[in-house]
Amino acid sequence: MEQLAVHMHQITKEFAGVKANDAVDFRLRKSSIHGLLGENGAGKTTLMNVLYGLYQQDGGYIEINGKQEEITSPLKAISLGIGMVHQHFMLARPMSVVENVMLGKPSRRGILLDTERVAGELKELSDRYGMNIDPYSKIWQLSVGEQQRVEILSAIYMGVEILILDEPTAVLTPQETEAFFKTLRDMRDDGKSIILITHKLEEIISIVDEVTVLRSGRMVGNKPVDEHVTKDELTRMMVGRDVLFHFPAITKAPGGLRLKLEQLSAKNDKGILALKDFSLELREGEIVGLAGVDGNGQKELCEVMTGLRSSTGGQMLLDGEDATNRSPAFYIDKRISHIPEDRHTTGLAMNWSLRKNLILKSIGKPPVTKRHLISEKVVEMIWRRAQSDYQIKASGGEEKARALSGGNQQKVILARELALEPRVLIANQPTRGLDVGAAEAVRARIIEARNSGTACLVVSADLEEILQLSDRIAVIYGGELMGILPRGADPLEIGSLMMGKRLGG
What we know:
This protein is α/β, with parallel strands linked by helices. Among the domains are: 4-239, Rossmann fold, CATH 3.40.50.300; 348-420, no CATH class. The protein is built from 17 helices and 22 strands. The strands form 5 sheets. It has a 6-stranded mixed beta sheet, with helices on both faces. It has a 6-stranded mixed beta sheet with strand order 16-19-20-13-21-22, sandwiched between helices. Strand 11 (257-267) and strand 12 (273-283) form a beta hairpin. Helix 4 crosses helix 5, helix 13 (376-390) packs across helix 14 and helix 14 runs parallel beside helix 15.
């Protein structure tokens, strides 16, 4: 008889009368890796939040190792050996990595903290998996990718038997992903049961033993994964249609030099030099992809290019004009658009309406503002056009940004930034956390911008995305440019540069 680590029987969960999960039957076999697929809003995270005790189901029941359990809280889930690494991190930002890991856990020294011992163990784990995390760093000082690695470290440290991973490889190189997958396989072989929520179909095919697909809150398929399973097959199950995985290459030569970065340097939030003598050229009608493991200066580079951080050296020229260390308003006025890596903190005002978010960069300018007053008619027109053109799923323009799925939030940012008809588009992790359908829509818009003459810089830790979009591929490591490769470059060569090997070195 099949041994199940988890059996979720006919799970139903409603929010405001909408069924996020509709009688879902989910099975996780012991000592297996199980993939969970579905578009944003399909109910994947809701289902796993029920398993982890963050939500309680409205119908159905859960069995853990063959015994029915009421999972009323994460503490209950943890006591049952269930751990979860969330897509949106559950970390205390003012505290250090080691303090976050120790939260809620008993000390071997009674009332005295085991900080030094735990930090040492975390450092060993970090080094073992190539995560490069300082246990004493404050969470707020870490990049999005580094925070994700902290969550993974914490889960591994807890020694859970059932581990839920939500997009765990978003910031890893091909070599690091391979090593991480080896770790997962070792965990599986040791008897651990793993649920992998991912939008990377290659991961599903390469590592999972079985896959469950959700669509609109319902389970639409469950099947073992073998050599005969294809990306197209899984995609059709997810979205009910074919999805474009290969975008056309540029059809004409890039135009004139639009933006020139000359030996830019900048410090990070810790006051440490994070961007070092970085030089790059962006031309009209071209996408330059910047590949690199998160935390290697990409954040600082994008912030310097948009006035959110001052450089400590070097120069930035926009159409020959010195554009170094100017105010954010300067770059907005010069039509430099920015899709930030963290849409929740710097991309959107989460408690503001969608209408207000769409005009954030146009307030005080015609036609949004006339005679010092905002034209509600114009704002409504902007909302309706954005909703129609970008297929934003929302009840109306007054809905708050935080109520939307990640994919729809990203569409709002795209609609706002591309409406400016940018001369330069800086897109930092533009599809992070999005399903294949939403990612396709975002990438298609970036291609359109390129084809209209925009100079585009796409920063991504997703190597597949870099390969799909880029006309040229630059690689960053330790804040330095490792080299520039042509479209269609070997992924392993790019991966080597991402790990610090210089081109030709």
